[in-house]
Each structure stands twice: as structure tokens, then as C-alpha cells.
Fold this protein.
Amino acid sequence: MPDDALSRPGGRISPPKLATSGIQPAKNTVLVSHGRPPWYGENGERISDAFVVGIAGGSGSGKTHVAQQIVRSLGSIPSVVILSQDSFYKRHTEEELALAHASAFDFDHPDSIDMPLFAACLSDLKACKQSNIPVYSFVTHQREDQPKYLYGAAIIIAEGIMALQDPGLRDLYDLKLFVQCDSDLMLARRLKRDVEERGRSVTGILEQYLRYVKPAYDNYVLPSQRYADIIVPGSNNTVAIDLICTHIRGKLLERSNFFRRKMAIPHLYTSPSGHSLPESKLEDLNLTILPQTRQLEGIFTILRSKTSSMQDFIFFVDRLATLLMEFALQFLPYSARTVTTPIGTAFTGKTMSAKYICGVSILRSGGTLERGFRRVLNDVPMGSLLVPSNNTDGEPLMLHVMLPVCIRKRHMAEETWVFLLDAQIGTGASAFMSIKILLDHGVKPEHIIFVTFLVARGGGISVLRRAFPDIKIVTAGVDDVVQEGWIDGPQGGGNEQGRQVWTILPGLGQIADRYYL
């Protein structure tokens, strides 16, 4: 994938089909089925890492197949990535490439793998940060120039023949597996794979196997079996897979964090210090509010009215978005610039000095600000986040991440200014998760400018401001009340249980529904 392209967890795999279809997930790809729930607490600090499973075994033992079985057997689970050790072969010299094409290079020795890079990438993913994984071609025997961006996995499965051999890797695993398989079956599988998938000759495969693969298995791979928590058969392993998946589900349940209710009604819950959170005064929330002019009052009157035509609603949403974006530009850095006027006179003014600028829209109501954003900044990249609510408990879920390259690469993210767009902040749960995603990528909190039409003072904004005091929030208006309600059924158990929602009063209604329908 080119560096200037956008990326998202899940690749081309449709989320609902992950656990039930016959799709064979590719290595080094985040597979999204259920979405990732909050991995942080009310103070914004990470409270749970990704759960990491290490799978070792001989070449052809069935490590990748076991990883795929685990993914399918887990069912409706959060995001998963299968991370392959094969991607971390070192970059080769011309002399090494000549040996590799002659099947005379030892790919099975631990020194052929960049273990420090493997551990660093795995450590980043475990700590909920993004990582750029190298891509290795078995056709050219060389690492490709463009890495693969990964982010957002709640479960990471790292597999490779040396996955348990390196102590730095072992320290990162929450569960260690070793796939045990008959040596004749491993050789047969390797022959079939290398002939069909990698274009090798049978003679070359056998020579490489006897010279390198078998000795490496005896000297390095098999001895690492003693570090495994579970020995998994390379075939007929249904019982072992069931036990592993039961263990993983239990660990994920232990790490779950019920978050939205604390955001929705913060004054009823306690802060990390143990004191109840008081009702926040408007001046305590550190908001930048658009000047309340008669023009703005007129725009809000039209937007709040249920009888406004769709044409008027769209026009004034775009108008308000443009006013907000123009007002929000004041938070970008500027430097002095001297220009020459048409009559030949020098004039010293200002120019934006941010190295990178981009926009990120929280789908789908955040899309209502994009036209105004483009009218003010028409030449910067735009990304998006999909953070819906779980229908069963109302918790936010990270379901889709598509970010510009200036955020995907951490050294660039540290110098990037981000306009984060959403129509309103009610409970603040989606806003909280979206901010955490940007911070996980290395964006500085003081470089995040959250632009929104409306904020509810009685909702989660107080928790949001306590957790992220350095973020700028620019809004056109503030309403007082967030009201709890139920749709699609009553509160309570049984098949008729409704879905819990929180509504801003007087509010603007479902802005995205009114804008797009």
C-alpha cells in the first residue's frame, strides 16, 4: 500500500463474516468482527493491553492454521491481528540474495530474523499503539520498501518457528503455544507450499530442508517447546483450540471496562481520587465558544426547528461548519511572513507554520462538518473514524480507522495538527475514544482541535476535560441537559429489552439523519 494511501483495520474482509465464513485471513492484517471496546479509564490512561498469544512450531507444523482456527472459534470478538515472524527477515545483501536464490542461504537460523524489530513492533501493538510492519517477499527474497500499517488489535497472535526462542518476545506473550507435528507431515506440507506458493523446485526444497530446516528445528525450535504453556497437536486439535479460546474469552472479560454510563452521568460516579464529580460550571470546562451573535442565534433557530426544510437545514449546517472552522484556525501556529504588495510595498503578515495539518471526521455525524472544513482548508488530507455504540450495552466500539499517513507514521504524527470533527458532544464517549486513538498514534494533545456544533454541559464533557485538559474544543453552542432514554423497546430484561440512549436537550436532533436523508 502506498505511503500516501489511507488504511483501516480489517483490510477487505467484511466484519460480520470473520468468524463464520470460509475466508482465510491474511497474515499481518487486523481483522475486525465486533469492534474494540474502551481500553482506558476515565483519566485517559490505558488500563488494558492487547492480549498476545505466541505460537511456535516447526516449518509446516500448522502454526498459521492453528492461529486461524483460534480466530474463527472465538466468534464475536474484538479486533484480532495475526502477526507473522516471516515478515521480519533481515534485509539481504547482493551476496546473500544470490545464495537465497540458489537455496543456499540459512533462513532457519535465529540470526536471519530481526528479533529486536519483531519485539518492538509487537510491543507497540500490545501497548495499543500503531506499528508499521515490514513486508517480506519470498519471491524476491527481500524486504519491500513499503511497510504495512497496523493498529487497533485487542488480540494479537504472533506466530513463527522462533516465536518462543527469543526471551524478549516471550516476555510480551500472555499465552504461549507450541504446535507439535510429525516430521514427515511437516516436510510434506513444506514441499506442497513451496512448490505451489513460492515457485521452488523439489530438489532445492529438499536440499534446503536437510541442510538448514531440520538442524534448526532440532537445535532451536524444538528446545523452545519447554517455554510453552500449552502443547497443541498439529492436526485433530479441536479440543485444544476450544480450551485456548475459553481461556482468551475469560481474560478479555476480566479486562472489560464499562465506560459510557460514567461519561453520560458523571456527577453520579466517582473520580479516580474517590471523590464524586460535581456538576461542572461552564467556565470550568475550558471551551472556546463561537461569539453568540444574532446571526448565530438565527442559524440555531433554523437548525433546532423540526419544520425546517431539508434544503435550509443542509445550507445552514454547512454555513455553521464554515464559521466554526474559520474560528478554529486561530489555534494553529503562525509565523511572520513578509510579502510584496502589487504596488511594490513590503508587508509583514502571518502564515500558518504547522508542518502537517489534517482533518479526521467521526462518522457519521462528523461528516456534516466536512464541507465547511474543505471550504476553509481545501488542500489537507482527511481521515475518518467509525465509533458506534454497542447495541447491547451502549459502550463505544472502535470499528473502523482510516487515517492519513501523517498520523500513521509516529515521527510525523508528533508534528501533525489534527482537526477532529463531530456534530455534538453528549455523553462524550465517542469523542473520548477518538481522542485516545489519536494519542495512541503519537499526536500531541495540544495539537488536537475538536470542532463541534454543540456541547452538553451536563454530559461527559466534564470527564473529557479532566482527562485531556490540553485539547482545544471549539463549539458553536452549549446546552445544559443530557437525558437518558430507551428506544426499540422498554428498559429491562427479556427479548423486548430496548437500547439505552442519551439525548441532548433542547439539542439538534439526529443531525446526520437530517443532513443525509
